[in-house]
Amino acid sequence: MPQPDHVTALAPADEATLPDELVPYFQKCRDKLGFVPNVLQAWLLRPEKLRNFVRLYDELMLGPSGLSKLEREMIAVVVSSWNRCYYCLVAHGAAVRRLSDDAQLGEMLAFNHRVADLAPRQRAMLEFAWKLTATPHEIGQPDRDALGQQEWTDADIFDIAEVTGFFNYTNRVAHAVDMMPNAEYHGIVR
Amino acid sequence: MPQPDHVTALAPADEATLPDELVPYFQKCRDKLGFVPNVLQAWLLRPEKLRNFVRLYDELMLGPSGLSKLEREMIAVVVSSWNRCYYCLVAHGAAVRRLSDDAQLGEMLAFNHRVADLAPRQRAMLEFAWKLTATPHEIGQPDRDALGQQEWTDADIFDIAEVTGFFNYTNRVAHAVDMMPNAEYHGIVR
Amino acid sequence: MPQPDHVTALAPADEATLPDELVPYFQKCRDKLGFVPNVLQAWLLRPEKLRNFVRLYDELMLGPSGLSKLEREMIAVVVSSWNRCYYCLVAHGAAVRRLSDDAQLGEMLAFNHRVADLAPRQRAMLEFAWKLTATPHEIGQPDRDALGQQEWTDADIFDIAEVTGFFNYTNRVAHAVDMMPNAEYHGIVR
Amino acid sequence: MPQPDHVTALAPADEATLPDELVPYFQKCRDKLGFVPNVLQAWLLRPEKLRNFVRLYDELMLGPSGLSKLEREMIAVVVSSWNRCYYCLVAHGAAVRRLSDDAQLGEMLAFNHRVADLAPRQRAMLEFAWKLTATPHEIGQPDRDALGQQEWTDADIFDIAEVTGFFNYTNRVAHAVDMMPNAEYHGIVR
Amino acid sequence: MPQPDHVTALAPADEATLPDELVPYFQKCRDKLGFVPNVLQAWLLRPEKLRNFVRLYDELMLGPSGLSKLEREMIAVVVSSWNRCYYCLVAHGAAVRRLSDDAQLGEMLAFNHRVADLAPRQRAMLEFAWKLTATPHEIGQPDRDALGQQEWTDADIFDIAEVTGFFNYTNRVAHAVDMMPNAEYHGIVR
Amino acid sequence: MPQPDHVTALAPADEATLPDELVPYFQKCRDKLGFVPNVLQAWLLRPEKLRNFVRLYDELMLGPSGLSKLEREMIAVVVSSWNRCYYCLVAHGAAVRRLSDDAQLGEMLAFNHRVADLAPRQRAMLEFAWKLTATPHEIGQPDRDALGQQEWTDADIFDIAEVTGFFNYTNRVAHAVDMMPNAEYHGIVR
Question: Which residue among B119, B182, C124, D130 is least crowded, i.e. fewest CB within 10 A of its CB?
Answer without folding.
Answer: B119
